Write a sequence for this structure.
């Protein structure tokens, strides 16, 4: 009796497993490389994180053009999402199942390079491409003297303004190459009125903004690289948090916005509750789409501090798996992918700034007449290196120390000295 | 006064249902709004301008229907496997005393302790060795293994609640062991089986991390992976299409629950035995 029952259960289980087996697309991918002497084309797996429909189309279009011209080296797009991609890549690399070409960002790809998972592209990258990329941007993808990725797309932090509110407050809309932080604070003060703030600034996760804009005041936050890096918190690093605190004390920045994400602040911007807002440059596309009819907005010139208008670059990247059997072919594809017209099309679709000067110029031509883009693209020239990209413990320090410390500072729970001490103590604890 | 009691009860019930259903209503509302309305300060459950194109975008993008089909297959098969495996094991754990029982329950508890991130790499390597990465079969087995301990724990409680007196009474009346199980225990256990099946189905339907890491090919992606792809880098979210996709994704779950809930009846044992 028991045997019969067990047999029945075993039979059912086997049946269900068979059903599952039939339903699974159990193609394990495997190695796409053809056998030696085979006429079959090489297939390169390209794990793409393009998420916007237009960017997906642009990527597919570039790959289709390559595949048409290169019947022996075919590229297959493997779409993936940004969410959880770090864990996926760790497993893929450790399990020997990573794709040939990997789309990611400099801030996150550097640890993989340090662990030896990415091919050195120094010898494979063309001189023309190297000359076309601003030096600071190229430095963000250079690890231990090895170029580990092609930089492709960038963003800068820009000030978007409601032209009508500025003019109504008697403010002349700045039009120069850059704009000082003092000017920003003056405009914020002038446009603050009953029921309206001059500035809305989404600083729910403030660390990325403060790290990116710190170079304008000479702030670098880190000296050295890898495990030997040292945290530096001085006047340059504390300058922008200090400006936020000043504006909050003066009542010129919406205190609610300081607890929101950048996107959440846009609703108040559209409603005229804030006259200006600091946003990632890509928001220009969303504002153009989502702002109510007749909303007259403008992008103000890049902000400039005493040390210039430099912002730390964290480009999206395309790297090659060091274990790929086709590193050279992958690099050839990336050379094609990063040609000016391709990068311009991709960045236009993503509303980002191309990493190469030629693509920036081409995109400026393509978008001439569209509000804001001339200023946004001009900000690309100020992008500079980002020391934090090469610090081993940065991610942990950012999440567990810096972000909560900056949030407490913005909330007024601590002063500049307290913030500096908290940042340093947390760093010491992590790196002890 | 008494005449008011019944309407008040219905009113309270309606309010409770509205409370429970509000997130779903809000999701449906968001799926029908334009991007401009979603990004405005106007907060309204009723869309100002009903937009169906979010559904079109959701369906066009990333193979949502194919992913839903994959999720359904994985969830149904892993649910069937979990119930089939957990049912006899739960009966054994609940009814038979001894060292094995203590070992079994201990194993169940210990298996719940390890975070997923800790097991994913060895799991990936094992599945790769047997050729089951990037496979719905592999994912089904992982979901089954992951859900089984808790399902076993759940079912064991239901089995333990069935008085052994009933089984003994059946035996006294001449039923053999199989008949007792089939005619007495299993019908009484049905609510527990249904609850366990629901738990297993939902666990598998919503599972993200294993699917993210194990599945490589877009044609194998499950629904949570596809829906996550509506959330892009730089904080960009296609909110309308994401809401529309989520509404569509909820439909199979709602259908499954509406079928199963009829069988989720408790109180079958009331008055089964004296005292």
């Amino acid at each position: 009796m028991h045997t019969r029952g067990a047999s029945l259960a075993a039979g059912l289980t086997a049946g269900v497993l068979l059903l599952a087996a039939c339903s699974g697309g159990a193609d394990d991918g495997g190695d796409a490389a053809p056998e030696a002497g085979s006429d079959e084309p090489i297939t390169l797996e390209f794990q793409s994180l393009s998420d916007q429909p237009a960017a997906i189309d642009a990527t597919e279009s570039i790959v289709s053009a390559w595949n048409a011209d290169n019947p022996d080296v075919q590229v297959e797009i493997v779409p993936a999402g940004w969410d959880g991609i770090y864990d996926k890549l760790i497993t893929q690399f450790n399990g020997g199942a990573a794709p040939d070409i990997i789309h990611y960002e400099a801030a996150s790809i550097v640890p993989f390079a340090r662990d030896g998972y990415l091919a050195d592209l120094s010898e494979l990258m063309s001189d023309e491409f190297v000359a076309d990329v601003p030096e600071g941007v190229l430095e963000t993808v250079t690890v231990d003297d090895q170029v580990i990725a092609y930089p492709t797309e960038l963003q800068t932090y820009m000030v978007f303004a409601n032209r009508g509110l500025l003019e109504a407050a008697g403010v002349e809309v700045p039009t120069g190459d850059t704009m000082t932080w003092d000017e920003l604070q003056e405009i914020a003060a002038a446009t603050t009125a009953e029921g309206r703030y001059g500035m809305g600034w989404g600083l729910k996760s403030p660390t990325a903004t403060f790290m990116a804009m710190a170079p304008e005041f000479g702030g670098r936050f880190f000296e050295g690289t890898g495990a030997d890096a040292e945290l530096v918190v001085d006047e340059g690093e504390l300058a922008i948090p200090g400006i936020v605190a000043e504006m909050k004390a003066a009542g010129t920045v919406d205190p609610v916005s300081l607890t929101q994400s950048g996107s959440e602040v846009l609703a108040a911007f559209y409603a005229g509750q804030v006259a200006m807002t600091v946003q990632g440059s890509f928001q220009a596309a969303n504002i153009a789409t989502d702002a109510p009819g007749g909303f007259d907005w403008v992008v103000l010139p890049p902000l400039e501090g005493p040390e210039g208008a430099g912002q730390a670059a964290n480009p999206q990247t395309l790297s090659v798996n060091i274990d790929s059997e086709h590193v050279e072919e992958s690099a050839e594809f990336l050379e094609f992918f990063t040609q000016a017209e391709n990068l311009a099309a991709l960045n236009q679709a993503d509303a980002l700034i191309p990493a190469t000067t030629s693509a920036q110029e081409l995109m400026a031509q393509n978008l001439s007449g569209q509000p804001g883009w001339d200023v946004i693209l001009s900000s690309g020239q100020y992008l500079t290196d980002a020391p934090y990209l090469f610090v081993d413990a940065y991610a942990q320090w950012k999440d567990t120390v810096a972000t909560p410390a900056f949030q407490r500072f913005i909330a007024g729970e601590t002063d500049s000295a307290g913030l500096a001490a908290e940042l340093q103590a947390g760093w010491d604890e992590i790196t002890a | 006064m008494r005449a008011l009691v019944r309407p008040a009860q219905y009113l309270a019930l309606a309010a409770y249902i509205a409370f429970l259903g509000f997130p779903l209503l809000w999701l449906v509302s968001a799926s029908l709004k334009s991007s401009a309305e979603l990004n405005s300060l106007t907060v309204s459950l009723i869309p100002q301008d009903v937009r169906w194109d979010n559904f079109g975008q959701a369906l066009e993008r990333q193979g949502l229907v194919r992913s839903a089909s994959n999720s359904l297959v994985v969830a149904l098969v892993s649910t069937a496997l979990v119930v089939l495996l957990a049912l006899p094991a739960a009966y054994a754990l609940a009814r038979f005393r001894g060292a094995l029982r203590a070992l079994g329950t201990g194993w169940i508890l210990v298996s719940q302790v390890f975070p997923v991130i800790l097991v994913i790499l060895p799991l990936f390597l094992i599945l790769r060795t047997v050729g089951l990465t990037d496979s719905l079969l592999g994912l089904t087995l992982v979901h089954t293994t992951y859900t089984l301990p808790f399902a076993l724990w759940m079912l064991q409680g239901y089995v333990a609640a069935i008085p052994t007196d009933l089984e003994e009474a059946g035996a006294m009346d001449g039923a053999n062991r199989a008949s007792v199980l089939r005619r007495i225990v299993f019908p009484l256990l049905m609510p527990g089986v249904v609850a366990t099946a629901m738990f297993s189905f939902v666990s598998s339907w919503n599972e993200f991390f294993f699917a993210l890491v194990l599945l490589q090919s877009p044609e194998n992606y499950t629904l949570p992976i596809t829906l996550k792809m509506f959330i892009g880098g730089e904080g960009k979210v296609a909110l309308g299409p994401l809401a529309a996709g989520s509404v569509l994704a909820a439909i199979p779950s709602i259908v499954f629950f509406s079928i199963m809930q009829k069988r989720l009846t408790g109180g079958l044992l009331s008055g089964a035995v004296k005292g």
Observations:
- Residues 401 and 425 of chain A are 9 Å apart (CA to CA).
- Chain A has 18 helices and 18 strands.
- The two ends of chain A are 65 Å apart (CA to CA).
- Chain A has two domains: 42-154+314-384, 157-313+387-431.
